[in-house]
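Notebook entry, structure prediction.
Reason for the run: the old model in the group folder had no record of what sequence produced it. Starting over properly, with the input documented here first.
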Amino acid sequence: MSSGKTIVSTGVTLAIIAAICTALVAATYHLTVDRIAANEKALLEQSLEPAIAGMLYDGSVSESRLVISPPHDLPGSGAAIIYRVYAEDRPVAALFVVTARDGFSGPIRILLGVDAAGVVTALRILQHRETPGLGDTIELARSDWVLQFDGKSIGDPVIGGWAIRGDGGDFDQLTGASITPRAVIRAARDTLIYFAAHRDEIFALPATEEEQ
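New structure, fully documented this time:
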């Protein structure tokens, strides 16, 4: 066989192999995309569950998602996410995913649940890079520090009370760490202030579609 024919034959073979590989990848994607999406949704619902524990509500929490693009008055410079919770079209709670920008080691991603009356249902730390053994005790798995936010609201305590005790506020500090709890407390306070100012708007806006 001449060298020209060999090159052509090799090219055809490689093209066939590439086509087969492409088809296999496409088939694998179509077989797994729904499963991956379902798993991601289950993980999201699981992460939101602490903020709605004990509540009666309709449907899936993750289906009423609202994205607030910057600029806004919520903590963080990027987009904030709100999951609205309803029961028979009646607002039950709003779950905020916001970012405290001023943690000791960087941004702290926070989930704050607020019921329709503006009372905190739960606060959880979703992501952070705080110092192990000090700032990382904001995690529920490491201490019960976040539980002191349960039942709080703007007015209970008053605005001046939204600070650590060392600053004259009503919230406990973390042993050996003050910057981290200050950041979380400020983020929770500012989120509650935003909710109080935009409550009706938050529950009335249509859900934001997921990016494709």
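Summary: Residues 3-48 form the longest helix (46 residues).
The old model has been moved to the deprecated folder.
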